[in-house]
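--- STAGE predict ---
source: upstream dedup step, 1 unique chain passed
mode: sequence only
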Amino acid sequence: MENFYPWAKAIHVIAVISWMAGMLYLPRLFVYHTDAEPGSAQSETFKVMERRLLRAIINPAMFVTWVFGLWLAWKGFGFSGAWLHAKIALVLMMSAVHGYLSAAVRAFAEDRNGKSARHWRFVNEVPTLLMVVIVVLVVVKPF
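--- STAGE serialize ---
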């Protein structure tokens, strides 16, 4: 089992990178989708892109991130350490942002987005800020 730990860590990191790539790209798609006329070919293309990104990349990556992250927290740290608790809290927040973006994909699919492009530009920064703090907690373990 000890030979599996580095593999689990590698899988976790790959999943996190995939999750973050999607979480950074999806709100950017929303910025452009907001400017597209509902029902237009451009709007319909964005709907397909958003749905596929969410279902094929973001959702599976989040699942794998959580599964391997919890396993690593248990095997490597016994779920102890204030930095780890803070990290888990921030990953819960990231998951809430994921849920918000998932709801937005459904709203865009139904042509009922009520948010501005400016809103989606702001939302685009939230995963970045969470990611920065999470990485600092993992690497530096400040407390």
